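SEVERITY: medium
COMPONENT: batch folding queue
REPORTER: lab tech (J.R.)

DESCRIPTION
The queue accepted two submissions in a row. Attaching both inputs and their returned structure tokens so the on-call engineer can compare them side by side.

ATTACHMENT 1
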Amino acid sequence: MFRSIVVTLFTAGFLASSILHANQLAPEVKTPDQVIELYGGTLVFDVQRSGQTIGTHRLDFSEEQGMLRVDIEMDLRIRFLALFSYEYRYLASEWWQQGQLQRLDVRVDDDGDLTELFARREGEHLQLTQANQSQQLPAELLTTNHWNMAILSQSAVLNTLTGETSQLAVEFLGESTAPAGDKEVPVRLYRLGGELEDTDTWYDEQGRWLGMEFSARDNSRIRLINRYIGGQRG
């Protein structure tokens, strides 16, 4: 159950059956300055399960040697009375140049089970290494860390947990409002198809990723609620 929560969270990439809505919403951002201006450097979510907070999901944006660096950290802790607890920590760093992934480092502690995944840009492909095995992937793949709205125009994404590519579909649901720090802002809602048929995600009119919601295998609802963005804290 718990691993399914995490895999669903990171597999949420998007295919552009609603590319028109994405293009109308915000321009594509590629440079470190553009992304840092968009998010103010930091993006933090509370992760809730059936209405109870079980952890946090954080993204930090910076410039390093002319590239955009994105550091992602997720910490989850689920307790059942005093008898059982489950802990999960995900750490990833991404380096981007002109909208293309140059390097990816992922380390996961799944309640004591440690795994690592690495990817490097080599010419016209990504060389991905995991568990002493290596494979080549298309260089244009975006990752499943959600912050880049350009993912809406992709037909495949790199799952940063499994190291596999995911073919997905998306349906535009309409407009709503959602927290952005200490404010409620208009957002556009999307429902992911394929493997994630009941996963919803939303972006504001600037193109900022502001949350998502999906079902775990036990039918509990997992929801990411924005708590902090740039200089706004909820």
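ATTACHMENT 2
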Amino acid sequence: MSSELPARPGAAPTSIASAAPSRHRVAVEERGSFCFASCSCGWFAPGRRSRDRARRDTDEHLADPEPAS
């Protein structure tokens, strides 16, 4: 998986390409010193100071987009 980060903090979210079904389009957005991961299905992860951890959150979501309740 590859992604491009915004050139500067606060820039528009960056989509991350994946092999997951088209209904799951994930993005990592920077707001201040935090990165937020979200998906078009409504899933989101908590704010992270680590860009790498936010990307891993998206990887985990795409690996199991509908976890058992």
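NOTES FROM REPORTER
The mean pLDDT is 78.
No errors were logged for either attachment.
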